[in-house]
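To: structure desk
From: M.T.
Subject: fold request, one chain
Message: Could you run this one when you get a chance? Sequence is below, nothing fancy, just the single chain.
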Amino acid sequence: KPLGLLCFLQLFDAVSCLAKENTRLLVLGRKHMLVNSSNWKREIMKEMQNKADFFFAENISEDDAFLLYATLQSGKHCKFVTRDFLRDHKACLSDSLTRHLFRKWQRGHQIAFSPSVEGKHINFLHPFRYDCVVQTTGDTWHVPYKDAFEEKYSYRVPRKWLCLQQE
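Reply: Done. Structure tokens follow.
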């Protein structure tokens, strides 16, 4: 499938899947998505618009700013889904503390996704409700870890924890 059509079908699958959870959805896109083409199908767009609210920015716009604003404005429980790692935005932040706070906020609000191996559905990886850093209580330490090396993105956190207790 052409890349544009593949993205469109993944968007359709994501909206359909998330709409089943009875969550309010806002899809941020660009105006070219409204034009019927080989990549964007008008009838499927209408079906998606019945399941979610849409905001269409200009085709040349930087839509990440809309995404961040909409997420922040929607409240602390709002989550967002994007394949973007938002590295450009982190790089623009003036100091390491602000970048750290942004990454922490991102880990708590970004839902990661990937198509299944067979391409039949989308797998969502929801953020944790706790911060993925070393946790201590008294003489017990909980350390997040990964079994194998993989490139780490700021929104992906280890799913395994090592529990250490001092004797």
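Reply (cont.): Residues 51 and 59 are 23 Å apart (CA to CA). Let me know if you need anything else for the meeting.
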